[in-house]
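Lay summary. Proteins are chains of building blocks that fold into shapes, and those shapes determine what they do. In this project we predict the shape from the chain. Here is one chain we studied, written as its sequence of building blocks.
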Amino acid sequence: MSTPSALRSWPLPLVLLAVACSDSSLHVIKDGEGIDGPQIEVTPERLNFGELDAGDTSVMSFTIKSVGTTALEVSTVEIGPYGDSFSVLSSPLDFVLLPGEEREIEIAFEPVDAKAESQALVTSNDAEGDTAAVDLLGASNIPSLKISPDPYDFGENYVGCLRDGELTLENVGVGALTISSIAHSGGAWTLEAPSGLPLTLEGGEKSSVFLEFLPGEAGDFEGTLTVISDEPLGTRTATQLGAAEWVGEGEDHFIVEADPPADIMFLVDQSCSMDDNTAILNANFNTFINDLSNYTTNWHVMVVNDDDGCARQDAKYGNVSVLTETTPNVADAFGDYTLGVNGGGFFGEPANTEALLTTAALATSPGKMASCNMGFRRDEALLHVIFVTDEPEQSSAKTWSVLTNEIVANVGAGKVKLSAIAGDVPGGCATADAGTGYYDAVGMTGGEFLSICAPELDGLHAAPRQRLGEGQPV
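And here is the predicted shape, written in a compact code that computers can read:
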């Protein structure tokens, strides 16, 4: 194929410019002309303001030039992230440059950080669509606070479960920095600030701030730590993130006559390893009672934790030990009673707190039912005894079977079911030992055994699933 004479005489003025890692678009430059379309050029690519004393200001500039073949429309010039020490002095910041025209932009540096690094960002209709950037650098001999990590992600959590976090406050500058206030906003977190404010940090010195993440509902959460000091910026903030979901969901199934009586006795392990589990139990008590009240309002609830087998009571609730639908602040009373401690074991906890069958046998005895537990037990009601623990049954004087038979004899055959929320049998789990003894007592009386370990069976998030009338457990 022959080459046209017009092309044979062309002195090859066509230059193709290709940029690595581009989208394969090509800019064409002809003799004496710029790049096709609007094109931006910024010079220099970096402004280094050096080191200033506190309160001093330095001004430097960079140039925006239109190097394309059509008008360059600049829509804004702004300072990027972490640019509190820099500001744009020039105005206006939206303008049009014809091909070959240029505009000088002034940037001021007034340090509020010991070391400042940011960018001046220029947005335009540049054909390549990229934002042009000029690096901004500066430093100063001033105190400067850094909060880290920022953001702090507490990750996924379960509703009602506690997670601790630690943030560091560091003076990354020169000279003493005095913190006058530390506060937090965000309902899912609790702040434990350093004691003894104001707090002074010398250059390079650090202190810690502790946060507790305890979500009360499912969802995504965001919190803000705010620290006020005498550094030039004055106020610093840091972001905390977290999420929560329910461990599991359960349905309560009841086969009952109209408004039948139900007597429910709780025995809750008081050892320190149970603190989180007991808090979750208390947080879900209203759900338990609401579901229960859909089927019967004729219920009695009693909490028995002490070695003497007597129900908990408190003057704050009128020294009432039997909780009913008409008890004022019934959820608060239940929560206080499950956390109540009165015993001679370790740390003042009941000696039998991990031998709850012993306590249940004593609590259901005729002597206790006629004295300190009077008014709880009704002959026409089915008695549900519910054990909540992360340990095996550890009664020493009698075996689980002897104690279970004793409880049945106290109440009457067919009138009592023992249920438990305890560790998986036989292997337990990371947070609970196997609930042996309780597991056997549950099977012996036809009760319900729920895992304190497995999310899909977590008994602390589902009201104990018992039939409150005749028949077998769900």
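What the prediction tells us: Confidence is low (pLDDT under 50) at residues 1-34, 342-347, 455-474.
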